Amino acid sequence: MTYIFQQVLNALQLGSIYALIALGYTMVYGILTMINFAHGDLFMVGAFFCFLIAAFLKLSFVPTLLLSMLGVALLGVLIERLAYRPLRSAPRVSAIITALGVGLFLENFTLALSPYPQHIPPLLTNTTWTFGSLSFSSLQVLVIVLSLVLMLLLDFIVQHTKAGMAMRAISWDKTIVPLMGVPVNKIISFTFAIGTGLGGAAGVMYGLAYPVIDPYMGIIIGWKAFICAVVGGIGNIRGAMIGGFILGGVEIMVAAYFPSTYRDFVAFTLLLILLIVRPYGILGKPQPQKV
Amino acid sequence: MPKPVIIQKLFEVFRNLTDHKYFWPVFLIGGLAVCTTASVFEFLDLYLQLILVYVGINIILTVSLNLINGYMGEFSVGHAGFMAVGAYIASLLTVHVFPSAMAGILFPFAILAGGVGAALVGFIVAIPSFKTRGDYLAIVTLAFCMIVKSVLENIDAVGGPRGLLGMEKLTTLPWVFFWTVLSVWVIRNLIYSNFGRGVLSIREDEIASDLMSVNTRQVKIIAIVVSSFFAGIAGGLFAHALQFINPRMFDILKSTDILIMVYLGGIASICGSIIGAVIYTILLEILRPLGIWRMVLMPLMLVLLMIYRPRGIMGMKEALAFLPLGDRWTQKIWRSKKEATDASP
Questions:
Q1: DSSP for residue B312
Q2: B330 inside domain
Q3: SS3 of A130, please?
Q4: Which domain holds residue A185?
Q5: Looking at residues B116-122, what average pLDDT do you find?
Q6: pLDDT tens for residues B295-326?
Q7: Which residue, of A68, B19, B132, B337, is most buried by count of CB atoms within 10 Å of its CB?
Q8: Taking CB atoms and an 8 Å limit, are B147 and A96 in contact across chains?
Q9: Is A58 within the bounds of a domain?
Q10: Is the ipTM beyond the 0.95 threshold?
Q11: What's the CA gap between B205 and B310, in Å, rounded?
């Protein structure tokens, strides 16, 4: 029983990191109907910012987190401005290829600057609490609580502020909304900043939980987060959160009861089955096709 | 934007050359002869030969992926998975099944078996494509690629994560030339056949083509099976050129490589696929002295290309030499008319 509870905690930790990254995918998709394949690598850049700030500036946890989020958000806005905006009217596929190119660029640029895996210095003293036979670390609790806070904040921004209303409006209809005086470019930049900033926060948390980082770590985690976004129904913010926790849960449960090398296999097979049964995700709505 | 005079002249020379009556027979026989003599008498050094082998393999991969991504308009990112299936089946056959004395003679059958295996797997992957479309189909192919890698890592009989070795260097230049020509020929003929029109109609509008009595399920299955068949063949050739494979070689990065070649050359264009594969492979080798920075430069070039020429080098266009006769005539008439109006507006 305690074993199961322990695994649930692990699943929540992994799932909240996945969910934070998946939010970036789903927000950009909702507003631009474009898959930002560079997002996983922005997550990696967030972990590297965390490493740089913690190792060289020697700041404490909160400024490190905020500075990393800010840095990644600026990078995200810059990428949108330079690479994606010129392609907004181009065919969708060329935007996807550009995103793949930007992702490869970020990976290899980081690899050229730091060819070896880096070790993030411990930013927090990790205490372990035990209740009876059950033990959990302060780090685990921090990651879960912080991601939940960030998600609630995001939900508040999207549902209850003016900018959030503009975001929802743009994803509803792209031709009428600019005529109503909504500054589309600013809102899109804002969306990119929030989405990639969350990715950066996920990078910092991942770096704290699993301290060895390397330039290619963004690929597999990014793709898995993308799967979370699709499972929840891409473009749907609450769906992305649910998808993150589902995938995290499945992966931890498989690793707990089977050899851990079967983790990817089972996770992706489940995904395939889900997509065959419900191709538009859990919370997504099927799009009517017109001829 | 008018093209520079040199490029125009180059185009003209290329067009006149490929338009000649005897271009294809001379090219095929000459190419095979050059490849054979090069590999038997070694007048090309081995490094150049290896690059040419990679160019051929990449052409096969690019042309076959273009059938799904360019002509059928779906977005497949799992091509490396099919390649892995072909590579493992072919290498297992030549290493463990065939007697080693006969391996050289039976090599084409091993490659063929790899292709057939990949095609069977492609048949299974084609089934979800009936209902799922667009981004969701991209996820299906991606998940397939990951599953293949994960399964290969878990089977100890094929070496698990350590990989498989012991293949002889059976991929020679003439064989690569043969398989490359075969794949280009088959896919080109497929596209300009009755069936190929069905593939194009699915790209334009699936429901409308269904209403026009195109059997979309059958067309999708055949396109994906043919594409994965040639990916498997490329995988078999790749394994016997490198003489070592492991599951990590066929991950998502390999798929991204193929995607870059397709979109660099241009979607829905056989000529473009060939140009893209050749340019990408050779450029990577030329830039080798830059070390890791070439891997920074390549994606940057891709992004710039997409911004300034979003359809790739030859997007939706085709060299005259690849067009069927009827299309070639209409193109020629259209061009002469255009030249006449351009000359005297």
A1: -
A2: no
A3: strand
A4: 2-124+138-226
A5: 95
A6: 888 888 888 888 888 777 887 777 777 888 77
A7: A68
A8: no
A9: yes
A10: no
A11: 21
